[in-house]
Amino acid sequence: MAGMAKTIILLGAVLIVVGIILLLLQKTPFLGKLPGDILIERKNFTFYFPLATSIIISIIVSLILYLIGKFR
Question: Percentage of residues in the chain with pLDDT exceeding 70?
Fold first, then answer.
């Protein structure tokens, strides 16, 4: 049970950190408007897919999880 409790606490701490980062990233002017983000605008239709932004966020999250696993 102690191992599971530590895992849940670690998961909660990671979620808090990710939440704080997301709050701070909303104020970042370039995030979501990178080259590689797909934007299609038509008369009554707008499609937006942040491809480059998703890749960068994925790399950052992977790096954080790798570091947590390495020093655990």
Answer: 97
